Amino acid sequence: RLCELLDNAGRGWRKLAELAGAEKRFKCSAEELEMCSLKVLEPRGSPTQCLLQLLAERDCTLRYLLGCLERMGHEQACRVLSSAVQDVIRITVQPESQVAAEGTQVSLTCCATGPPGLAYQWFCGRQEVPGATSPELVINTASLAGQPEWYICRVNSGAAFTFSRWAHVQVEKSSSPSSARGYCPTMAGLQILRQPRPCCLAEGDTLVLECRAIGNPPPQYQWFRNRRPVEGAQAPQLQVKLVTTAERGSYSCRVFNLFHEVWSQEVDVEIGEGPRQTSVTPHLLCSQAGVSHSVTPPSLVLAATDKVALLIGNMHYLHHKQLQAPIVDVHALSALLRQLDFKVVSLLDLRKAEMQMAVDEFLLLLDKGVYAGLLYYAGHGYENFGNSFMVPIDAPSAYTSEHCLCVQWVLREMQQRRTGLNIFLLDMCRKRNLNDDIIPQVGALEVTANIVFGYATCADAEAYELSQGELSNGIFVTFLKRWLLEDEKITVLLDKVAEDMGTLEITRGRQALELRSNLSERRALTDPICPPGQDESSARNLQWAKAHVLPESRHLRFDCGVTVQLGFAAEFSNIMIIYTRVVAAPKVITKCEARLTDIPEELDVDLKCTNKESPEELGSPLAPVWSLGCPSCCLYSRICGLQKLRQELAFTVYLQYRYQGMDDFVEEWQQVNVGRPLIAKLNLQ
C-alpha cells in the first residue's frame, strides 16, 4: 500500500529518501537512488519498495519512518503506517533549561503527540504548579528566591502517561543596573548573558564552553567550530571529554528562536603545544601609519574535487590458506563509502596482473585534489624493510616481492597524480617474509603531508579473522564500520577504531591497529565534494561508470510462444548474478524452465552454483542483499571473475518445456551476447 502511494514523482519516495537521510546512517547515495528509480523498468518493480529495503538493512525503525512521512505531510501514508506503530505518547518538544535576568518572564514549552485529548500538568520540584495545564508554562522570575528551580511536565491520556525531561531556571542579576528591571524579552528578542571564553588545554583534558541567553520564545543553541556546525552540540554548554588536537579551532554559538538570531563572540581553543614557526602564523601582522594590527584569515572549509576508493579482497588462494572474511568486509565498506559519496570499485580474487591493472585503472580516476585513497586491501600480505606487499591469489608457495604488489609503489603513483588525501587501509599480516631478501626500489616519496596508513595489525604481527561457522566481518572491519560515517579527521577516526579493537579480549596482545600519518590538515571522509571543470569531472565519471554498467534486462521470445526474462544484478564490480524467469507461456504448455549454458571457460563459474532455484543455493553470503531486487520464481547463476573476459560475454539460454498430455520434453535455445559487463569493460587482461 505504501508503494502505491509513494511511487510517484511528486511527493513520493524521493522526498522520503531526502527526509530519512537527515539521519546520517539512513542517507542513500546517488547510486542507490538511481538503483531505486530503475525499478520502474521492471514489470513489478517499485522504487519505494527498494528504498524501504535499503532503510531496513540500516535498522530504520517504523517509528522513524512514520516521523518522516509526517514531515512530508502525506496523511494517507501516515494512516497506512500508523496501524503498524503502537500509538503511544511521544514528547516532540522538550523544555529547555534557561538563565534569566531578574524580574523578567520565562517561558517553558512541552509538546507531545499521541492519542486525542492529551492533558498536561507542570510540576516545580515535586509540587504541582496550580493552573499549569497547557503546553506552555510562563514563570515570573521575581517570585524566585535566586536559587535554581527545577520544572517538569507530565503528559497523559487516561491512564497512560509520560514525563518530559527536567529543566531548571536560574535567575541572575544583570550587570547593567539600568536594565535590571527594564529588560523586556518580547521587545528585545534575545540577549546573551554569558559569553564563551577562550581556553588552552592539553590533550586528554575536558573542553567546556558555555553560552547563556534569555528570550521569549526560549532560545535554542547551535555550536560551531571553524564556522561549521558541531554535530549534536545544541545545548547552552558544550562539553568534549578527552580532547585531541582535532578539537582545536575557533568556536562560536548561534542563539536563535522563532523570531530572532544572535551570535556569541568567537573564541579560540588551543590544544597542546603545536610547533611554532616564524614563517607561518595564525595571524598576519600588518603595519600602516605606525599602527600595528592583526588580520585573521577566514576559516576555510576543506573540500575534495572527488572521492574515489578501490577495494580489493583476496580469498581463494591457489597455493595458500583460503580466507573467509574479505567478501563480507569489502561489501560492508563499499556500502558505507557510497553513503559518503565515494566512487567505489570493489573486486574479489585478483591475480598479480589483474591487481596491477586494477590499480592502473584506479589511478586514472585520480587528479589534483581528489581524495584518492581509499585503497583497502584484505588478504594475505607481508612487510619487509618497511615496505608492505599485497599477495595475489596466484602467488606461488614461496613468493617474493616479484610476485606481489608493493603498497609504497602505489603511493608513489598516487602522489604523482597530486591527490588531496591518500588513505591506505591494509587488512593483512605484516610478518617478515623469509623467502624474500630483496629491497625493492620504489623511488623517493614526496613530502606531501596528506598520507594516512591504517594497518589492521602491528609490524611483524598477524591479522586474524574469527572462525564462527558462518561468514562475518574480520576483526578490523568489525570495528572500522562503527566509526566510518563519523565527521572526524581520519586520524581521529582511526584512533577510535584502535581503542575499540583494544577491548576485544580474544586478540589482546596479538593484534592491534597501527596508525601512521603525516596529515597536517583536518581532512575527513565526510568532507564535501566541490568538482572542478566539467571536462575533468566528466572524464572521471565516465571512467568510473564503465566499471559499473550492468546489461539491460531483456525478454527472449521463443518459437513455442514462451517469453523468458533475462535479468542482472551486481554483487561486486567483477561478480554478476544472472537470473532467468518465464514470464509468459501458452496454456497448452504445462511445465517450462530456462537455464544458462555455454558460459565462457575463462570465468570462475562453478557449475554446481548455476541455475539454482533460490539465491541461497548459490553459496554467496551476500545473497540476501542482491536478491532483494530480483523477482520471484527465477533460476539464478553467479558469474565470477569478470576481469578475465577476453571478449564479450556470450552464453546460451536453454529452454525446456512440455505440452499437455505429453511425457517428453521439447527443447529450444537462443544465443545471447551481453557485451562486456561491469569491470570487463576496462580490459584488465
From TrEMBL:
GO MF: cysteine-type endopeptidase activity
Database matches in CDD domains: Death_MALT1, Ig
Database matches in InterPro entries: Caspase-like_dom_sf (IPR029030), Caspase-related_regulators (IPR052039), DEATH-like_dom_sf (IPR011029), Ig-like_dom (IPR007110), Ig-like_dom_sf (IPR036179), Ig-like_fold (IPR013783), Ig_sub (IPR003599), Ig_sub2 (IPR003598)
All residue ranges annotated as the Ig-like domain in the record: 89-164, 185-270
Gene Ontology process terms (BP): proteolysis
Pfam families listed in its UniProt record: Ig_3, MALT1_Ig, Peptidase_C14
Every Caspase family p20 domain range: 305-433
The protein's name in its UniProt record: MALT1 protein
Organism: Tychaedon coryphoeus
Gene that this sequence comes from: Malt1_1
